[in-house]
Amino acid sequence: MQLTVLKSKLHRATVTDHNLHYEGSIGIDKDLITAGNFKVDEQVHVLSETTGERLVTYVIEEPAGSGKIVLYGPAAHRIKTGEILIILAYGIIDETELDKFKPSVIYLDKNNKLEI
Questions:
Q1: SS3 sequence, 64-104?
Q2: Mean pLDDT by 10 residues, the chain (116 residues)
Q3: Exposure winner among 7, 23, 57, 86, fewest CB in 10 A?
Q4: Host H or E run for residue 33
Q5: What pTM was computed for the model?
Q6: What is the spatial distance between Cα 92 and Cα 107, in angstroms, rounded to a whole number?
Q7: Hey, where are the domains in the chain?
């Protein structure tokens, strides 16, 4: 049996900007993409801890080290600068791999830097 499981998670990311004038997506600092094992153009679920809003979009890359988390296009109507997010990506694995599988879960501080 195939199971859909959590693959990647950025926990408590702070939205640094929102911009209506774009086709639509979420921009994430390249370093955070790498740390969380996300991929550019990958589908993600974006959950606002601030408002409870939930949406599905895709990842685009912001400059490494910038700390940027930016909502673009229609998503910018629903999630605004300053909100706290959980960003999730899922993968499909065989049930037999479940015991060996471990998702990438990254905790961020208020400046979108890795908490250690």
A1: CCCCCEEEECCHHHHCCCCCEEEEEEEEEEEHHHCCCCCCE
A2: 97 97 92 98 98 97 98 96 98 96 97 90
A3: 23
A4: helix 30-35
A5: 0.95
A6: 23
A7: 2-93+103-107
Catalytic hit among 22, 48, 58, 90: 58
Residue in the structure block whose two tokens are 């809003």: 53
Catalytic residue, candidates 8, 25, 48, 72: 25
Alpha helices for 57-108 (secondary structure H): 75-78
25 is catalytic: yes
Q: How far is CA 71 from CA 49, 53, 93, in A?
A: 15, 13, 29
Q: For the domain bounded by 2-93+103-107, which CATH number is listed? A: 2.40.40.20
